[in-house]
Structures are given as structure tokens and as C-alpha cells.
Design goal:
Elements (H helix, E strand, L loop, with lengths): L7 H13 L2 H8 L3 H15 L4 E4 L2 E4 L1 H24 L8 E8 H18 L3 E8 L1 H9 L5 E6 L6 E16 L8 E2 H6 L1 E5 L4 H12 L5 E6 L2 H9 L4 E5 L12 E4 L1 E2 L3 E9 L6 H19 L6 E3 L3
Parallel strand pairs: 3-4, 3-5, 7-12, 8-9, 8-10
Antiparallel strand pairs: 1-2, 5-13, 6-10, 6-11, 6-13, 6-14
Length: 312
């Protein structure tokens, strides 16, 4: 046996560093101290007697041998993740606890039909539902604190397997002055007094990129992570908010507020995400398929305003 045997922890930290492009970012994804990540990777390099990462001003990248080890490490981690499923390969009822991370705005409309469907289909499964932002839920999936995540995103993220389900346009939400108005262009929207979600935030990221693509500098009056705070500020006439239609309560038009389309549209994609490092166990896989079917059914029925199914 070698003096410094390779461990699964070393492989997991090394893969996270390559996926993240930096040791500091890997530490954030793994929710551990940065020196611990560096130490485990250094021990892996010592055990293999080869440099695996090249340090650059922008972070890290795998060396030639590091790229080979990275591919093999991914395969090893996937196989280890399958061991439990293989041990339970005999046919049996789907059972166990499955944790699902939901975007807070979608949780309100999805929890009831999803829990009802799961109770009917898999009575021996206990759901643990966690709410949060897309950023926090993605971190929970990367660190395996939840089995399944549902997030809004405008671009694929490393370290996860994603299944796009539906798309949602962003709308301007403003105080209703009683005057009929057409859709807002991005240039007019940039000149409005804006009330935006605080960064880091997936919605905010999409907004910033949309303005940047047109060379526009938006006038931001205030930032807040509170949806209720945004509604109150808009109702008070302090500015215009930009939100997915799914985050704007039904029936809000005509009650002091109104929504307006943005042209060209700013669009987010809602996707389920699973860890790329470990395949889901039997119960998590079954619940994931049921979650996707529930969402597709809700969107197809028109129950979710402003949502359209993602292209296959």
C-alpha cells in the first residue's frame, strides 16, 4: 500500500477545483475553508507524484496529466455514488427521504400539487422541501445538501446536470398612473428609476447582462432581496421593478400596479439540477421525474402566467 493513499475526499476536492476554475471558488461550493481544499489537492499530487493543477492569474486549470486524472476522478466518484443503488437493486417500493430545493417564488405555486402527487405516487417517500434563491439552491446541490434543485438561470452552471423545463420572460412592474402604455424598450427601461434585486441573484444577473449587451447604464434607485419590499416601493411610486411574471402575484394589475412587457425580452430558464458528481439514488430519481412531470403539467395547463415550455 502506498505511503499516501488517494482518498475520495481528495478526488472530490480536485474535481470541484477544476469545475470551479479556482481553489477559492471550490471552497465556497464545498462550504469548507480554502486552505483545506489546497491541502487535500496537494496531498493528491504528492500521492500521484505529479502536478495536477497549473496556477494562473485567473485561477487554476488542469495540467496535461491533471486532465487525465480529472476524467478518471469523475468516473470514480460516479461509481462510488452508484454503490448504494446497486446494493438496493432488488425490486422494492420507492421509499426514503428526498430533499428538494425550490425557488421561493415557485414554491408557493408548486408545493401543493407536487406534494399531493408524491403522496399519491410514492406514499413511502418523505419529502424535505427547502426554499431559497437560485444561487443558494445551486450551492446546496453542489455540496449535496439537497438531492434535487429547481432554479432560474440564464446560462448553464458547472458541476450540475440540468434539465430545462420552461422559460419565463421578465416584466416591468410599475405604479399604475391610469395612462395606457405600450411595451418598454430596454433603452427606456434603463432611463427609468429602477428597484432591482440585490446581487448575487440570477434575475439581477440577467438584467445586468441585458443592459450591458446594449451598452446601457441603468438608473438604479435601490436594491433589495425582499420581494415584499419591492412591491411596496413600486406601489409608493419610488421606481420600477423587473421580475419574472411568476414572481408577480395574480390580479396585481388594476390595483395600483401594472405590468409591462420588455422589448426585446429578457428571459430566464427554469431547470431542475442534480449533482454531476453523484447520480441520484432510486427514490431521488423517481421524485425528480415526478417533479418534472408536475411542472410540465402545470405550465401546459396555463396555470403559470408568462411561462412557456422549454424547447426540447
Amino acid at each position: 500500500m502506498p505511503a499516501n493513499p488517494t482518498t475520495l475526499r481528495q478526488l472530490r476536492y480536485f474535481v470541484a477545483a477544476v469545475d470551479s476554475g479556482s481553489i477559492s471558488q471550490a471552497a465556497i461550493v464545498l462550504s469548507i475553508a480554502q486552505p483545506a481544499v489546497g491541502q487535500q489537492i496537494a496531498e493528491l499530487e504528492a500521492a500521484l507524484d505529479a502536478p495536477l493543477l497549473a496556477r494562473t492569474a485567473r485561477g487554476v486549470r488542469p495540467t496535461e496529466i491533471g486532465a487525465i486524472v480529472y476524467a478518471q476522478a469523475q468516473a470514480v466518484l460516479r461509481q462510488v455514488g452508484q454503490l448504494h443503488s446497486l446494493a438496493r437493486s432488488a425490486p422494492r417500493a420507492v421509499a426514503g427521504t428526498v430533499s428538494v430545493g425550490l425557488i421561493s417564488s415557485l414554491s408557493a405555486r408548486l408545493t401543493v400539487p407536487f406534494v399531493a402527487a408524491c403522496r399519491d405516487r410514492f406514499p413511502q417517500v418523505r419529502l424535505r422541501i427547502v426554499e431559497g434563491t437560485s444561487v443558494t439552491i445551486r450551492e446546496f446541490v453542489n455540496t449535496m445538501r439537497v438531492d434535487i434543485g429547481l432554479v432560474f438561470e440564464s446560462a448553464a452552471a458547472p458541476g450540475v446536470v440540468r434539465r430545462p423545463l420552461f422559460e419565463q420572460d421578465l416584466y416591468a412592474l410599475e405604479k399604475d398612473d391610469g395612462v395606457a402604455r405600450d411595451a418598454l424598450s430596454r433603452s427606456k427601461l434603463a432611463r427609468a428609476k429602477l428597484l432591482l434585486p440585490s446581487a448575487p441573484n440570477t434575475i439581477r444577473g440577467a438584467i445586468d447582462r441585458a443592459f450591458s449587451a446594449r451598452g446601457l447604464e441603468p438608473q438604479i434607485v435601490a436594491e433589495t432581496a425582499s420581494l415584499s419590499g419591492l412591491y411596496g416601493a413600486v406601489r409608493a411610486g419610488l421606481g420600477t421593478a423587473i421580475l419574472p411574471m411568476g414572481e408577480i402575484p395574480d390580479g396585481i394589475d388594476g390595483k395600483g400596479l401594472r405590468t409591462r412587457r420588455i422589448r426585446p425580452s429578457i428571459r430566464l430558464t427554469a431547470s431542475t439540477i442534480l449533482s454531476a458528481l453523484t447520480p441520484p439514488e432510486t427514490a431521488a430519481h423517481a421524485v425528480h421525474e415526478l417533479l418534472c412531470a408536475t411542472i410540465v403539467g402545470q405550465v401546459s395547463s396555463g396555470a403559470w402566467r408568462g411561462a412557456v415550455l422549454a424547447a426540447a
